[in-house]
Amino acid sequence: VTIAVDVMGGDRGPAVVLRGALQALEADPDLGLTLVGPAEEVEPFAAVHDRATAQVATEARTCTSSAAARIRAVPSPQVRVRAFRRCSRTTVSISA
Q1: Which of 17, 36, 37, 75 has the CA that lies 20 to 30 A from 93?
Q2: DSSP state of 10
């Protein structure tokens, strides 16, 4: 099973999410993670964990607007589809 994790999705920042990602990898030897977020957060983690891959996200949406407004703010439907397809290797996507 491979799970996509939004490292910017936690209330306390990416360090807490990455700590949880490490715990999950240690607990399940069959687990793979696709970490989605800024390069400076996801690439170093993926570089040292062979079952983790980095998916660099160049934009972030905040919780100050509704979910529908955040989705509509993405430049075009093609961009949304491409973003989804990039993570299509995953079984589950998680964003807190």
Answers
A1: 75
A2: S
Contacting residues for 55 by C-beta, under 8 A, at least 6 apart: 4, 34, 35, 36, 42, 86, 87
What is the rounded CA–CA span in Å between residue 26 and residue 23? 5
- Mapped onto helix, strand or coil, the DSSP state of residue 15 is helix
Element (H, E) at 3: strand 2-6
Distance CA 51, CA 67 (A): 30
Q: What is the DSSP string of 17-86?
A: HHHHHHHHHHH-TT-EEEEEE-HHHHHHHHHH-TTEEEEE-S----TTS-HHHHHHTSS-HHHHHHHHHH
Give the position of tokens 């979910």: 67
